[in-house]
Amino acid sequence: MQEIEFSEFVGLISLLVILLPLFSFLLILAGRKGSGANLALINISISFILSVYLFFFIWNKQPIHYQIPWFLIGDIEFKAGVLLNNLSVLMITLVSGISVLVHIYSRTYMKDDLNIHRYWAYLGLFCFSMLGLVVSDNLLLIYLFWELVGFSSFLLIGFWYTRPIASQAAKKAFIMNRIGDIGFLIGIIIIFSQFRTLDITALFGDMGLVKASLVDKGLWISASRQMPEVWFSIAGLAFFIGAMAKSAQFPLHTWLPDAMEGPTSVSSLIHAATMVAAGVFLIARVYPVFDPFVLNTMVCIGAFTAFMAATIAISQNDIKRILAYSTISQLGLMVMAMGIGAYSESIFHLATHAFFKCLLFLAAGSVIHQLHHYRDEHSLDFNCQDIRLMGGLKKGMPITFIGMCLASAALIGLPLSSGYLSKDAILITAFEWAGSRDGIYTMIPYIMVITSWLTVFYISRLVFKVFFSTPKLMSMEQANQIQDAPKQMSYVLLILAFFCLFFAFAFNPFSFDSSWLWNGFSSNLFQKVNFYHWLIPLILNIGTAVLIFTAYRIYVKNDGMSISEKNIFHRFFRQEWYLHELYNYLFTVPVEKFSNVCYWFDRNIIDALVLKSVTLISILSAISHWCDRILVDGFVNALGTCAKWIGHFSRNFQTGKLQHYLISMLLVVLSFFILTYFI
Amino acid sequence: MIPLSHFLIISACLFCIGLYAVLIKKNAIQILIGIEFMINAAVLNFVAFGKFDKLNGGGQLFALFAIVLAAAGVAVALAIILNVYKHFKTIDPSKINKLKN
Amino acid sequence: MNTEQLIFYFFAALLLTSALMVVAMQNLVRSIFLFFVALFSLAALYVFALADFIAITQVVIYVGGVLVLMLFAFMLSNKELLNSLHPIKTSFKFYQLTGIFICLTFLFILVSLNLQIDFSGLNWIKSSAPILERDNTTHTIGILSMTRYLLPFEVLSVFIMMALIGAAHLARKDKKA
C-alpha cells in the first residue's frame, strides 16, 4: 500500500515538474506581455527544486513506474505514465538545472528584444517537452515529446523570423528532424508489431521482452510472433536514425550550424546541452534493441562525425559556428561510446558536456552582447560574431574569460576538469574495446585521439583569438574598456564554471571509476587493461600541451594563420566539406525542379483542362442558345406566323368582293351536295 | 328522237360555263353574259322537260316567261352598270366594294 | 346515228364551243359576238326539243333585243367605258383555279345525277303525252297563255313596264351638273 501511494505521489510530483513549464507557456501566450520573465523563471525554478527532490529519492533506489490508462485500440490498452529511474532523474535534474540558469541569463541577454514574451513562452514549451521526454514510460509518449521538442526548437531557432536566414534555418532544422522522426516511427512500428506493447520497462528492462527474444535460425522470435531476423537490425537502425537527426550525426548534422541563427541563450540551452542530448538519451533508453551490426554502425558513424566536425571547426570564423561543430563532434563521441558499449561513460560525458558546452555558449553570448553594445555606442558596422575581428578582451571581461577558459579546459579534457574524467573514460574504453576487435575497428580509438587533438587546437584558437590577440577594429585601450557582461549573466557563468571542475562529479580527479555518476549506470565490462588508464591520458595531455603552445604561437605571437586560405584542405574544411552544396544539389534543387514541373503541370494541364471545360461549356451554352433562339423561339414565332397566315387566309373570305362571296356560297352548296348524295 | 338526258347534260354544261363566267370575270358586262348563260341553260331545261307536257304546256310557257324576265333583267342591269360606272369610274366588280356614296 | 342526231350534236358542240370561247375571251366585243353565235345555236337546240315558238322567241328577244341592247349600251357610252373594257391581261391566278374547280365539281354533280336517273323509267314520263312534231305549239301556247296562265302573263307585262321605266330612269343623264 505504502509503495503504491509513494509511487503515486512521486508520479504526481514528476507530473508537476513537467507541467509547470507548460503552464508558463500557456499563461504567457494568453496573458499580458510584460510579466513573462518572472512567471517563466518561477515555474522553472519550482520544477528544478522538485526534480532535485526526485533525484534524491530515486537515485540508486527502486525505480518508480506510475501509469494511468490512456486509450484502447482493439484489445490493446495503451497506458501513459512516468518512469523514474537513474537515467530519468539525472536527465530531469540536468535539464531543469540548465534551464534555470539559461532563464536567469536570458533575462539580461534578451532584455531589449520586443518579442520577449514569445521567447519566454517558447522556452516554457521547450522545457515542458524536454522534461516530458525524459520521464515518459512508453515509446509513443516519447515520440510525442520528441516531436514537440523538435517543434519548439523550430520556433526558437526562427525566433527572429523576420530575418530570412533565420526562418530558413528553422525550416532546415525541422525538416532534418522530421527525417529522423520517420526512422523513430519505423522503429516504434517494428517493435510494436513484434511485441504488441510499447512500454519501456516491459520492453527494455532487464527482464524485458527484447532481451528475452531470441535470434535463432534466421528468425527473430518473441513470445507472440516471429519475423525474419533482419527486422531486428532494421528496428535498431531505425531508432538510430531518429537519434542521428536529433543529435546531429553525419549525414543529418547540417541543421545544427545553421541553427545558430537563433539567440545565443537558445543555442546554449537547446543545441548544446539538452535537445541534442535527447538523441543520445533515446539510444540509452532503447539500448537493448541494438544488435551488434547496428552498434558497429553507430561506432563508425559516431567516430566519423566527431572527426569531420573537428576538422571543420578548425577553419570556421564565426564563434557560434565553431561551438556548434564542437557540439557535433562531442555528440559523435557520445554516440560512438554508446556503440562500443560504454553506456555509463557516454551518459557521464553527456552530463559533463551539458555544463561546459552551455558555459561556452553563454560566455560567447556575453562577448557578443558586449560587442553589440560597443558597436552601437561607436556606430560601427561589423559582424559581432567573427573571431577575426575580436581580440584582447581578456582584461576587460575577466569573468567571461575565466568561464571560457574553464569550459575550454573541460572540453579539451585537461586534468582537474570534469571533461577529463568523462572524455578519457570514453577513450580508454574505446581502446579496451578495440582490443577485442580487428580490422578497421582498431583504427577507431586512434581516430578519436586525433579528434581530441583537433578539439584542443580549435578551442584554443578560439580562446586565443578572442581574448589574447591584438584587436583588429580597435586599439588595445579601447578593448580594455569593453566591460564585462552584466552581473546576472556573469553569475550564471560562474555557477556553470563550478560544474566544469571535477568537484561535482567525483572525488578523485584522475579516475572515473570513482565517479558517482559513472557508478550509477552499468555498462559492458571489457577486459580492463590497466595500463591504458594512465597511458592514454598521458599521451593525450602531452599532445594537448604541444598543441596549445602551437596555437599560442600562431594566434597570439604571430597574429595570423600559418596556412594560407587557398590551401585545399583549408578550403575543404571551411566550406564544411561542401556538404551544404551537396545536399542542395541532391535534394533542394531536384525538389525545386520537381515543384516547377508540378506547377507547370498544374498550370498547363489541369488549368488547361479547366479552361477547355470552360470552352466546352461555352460551346454548350452557344448550342443551347442556338436551340433556344431557333427551336424554341422559332416554334413560338412559327405559331405566330401560323396565326398570321390563318388570319391572312381567313381575311380573304370577307373581301367585300361579290364574286368571292359567290364562290364561298357555292362551295358550301357543293359540299352539301357532295356530302348528301355521294357520302 | 333525242333523249332527255342529252338536253340536260348540255344545259348543265352551259350552266357551269355561265357560273364560271360569273365567278371569274372582272368585267361587269361579262358577268352579265354569264348570268344570261345560266338563265338560258335553265330555259333549255324547261324546254327539254316541256316536251312531255302536252296537256298543260307549262314547260314551254314558262320558258317564254323566263326569256322575257331575263331580257328585262338585262336591261335594268345595264342601266345600273352605266350608273355604277359613272360613280365608281370602273366596272370591275372587285373594285366596287363600298356601299356608301 | 341518223341525220337528226348529227345535226343536234353539231349544234350542241357549236353552242358549247362558243360558250367556252365567250368565257375565255378577254376582249368584251369578241365575247359578245360569240354570245350571239351561242344564242343562235341554242335556238336550234330548242327546235330539236320541239319548241319552235321558243326558238323563234329566243332569237327575236335575245339576239335582236338583249344582244343589241348590250352592244349599243357600251358602244354608245363614253369613251372611258370603252377604254376600260380593253382586255386586261391577268396572269393565271389561284382565284381562277377556284372558279374552275367549283364549276367542274358542279358539273360533275349534275352530270352524275343525271346519268343515275333512268328517265324512261319515271312514272310521270311514262304516263305523259309527249309533244309530237306535227303539233302546233304556237296555237297551244297562245291558248294557254290566255286561259290557264293569264295571271303570269299580265304580271309579266306589268313587270316589263316597270323594268322599262326603271331602266329609263336609271340611265338618264344627270341634269344637276
Describe the structure.
The complex is a heterotrimer of chains A (679), B (101) and C (177). Chain A has 679 residues and is mainly alpha-helical. Among the domains of chain A are: 1-137; 160-288, no CATH class; 582-646. Helix content of chain A is 72%, strand content 4%. Chain A is built from 24 helices and five strands. In chain A, a hairpin with a 4-residue loop joins strand 4 (219-221) and strand 5. The N and C termini of chain A lie far apart (122 Å). The mean pLDDT of chain A is 82. Chain B contains three helices and no strands. Chain B has helices at residues 4-24, 28-50, 58-88. In chain B, helix 1 runs antiparallel to helix 2. The longest helix of chain B is centred in the C-terminal third of the chain and has 31 residues, at 58-88. With 177 residues, chain C is mainly alpha-helical. Among the domains of chain C are: 1-83, Four Helix Bundle (Hemerythrin (Met), subunit A), CATH 1.20.120; 135-172. Helix content of chain C is 75%, strand content 0%. Chain C is built from eight helices and no strands. Chain C has helices at 3-24, 28-48, 52-75, 79-84, 94-116, 123-126, 137-147, 150-170. In chain C, helix 1 (3-24) packs antiparallel against helix 2 and helix 2 runs antiparallel to helix 3. Chains in contact: A-B, A-C, B-C. Chain A binds chain B through residues 655-660, 662-663, 666, and chain B through 19, 22-25, 31, 93-94, 96-98.
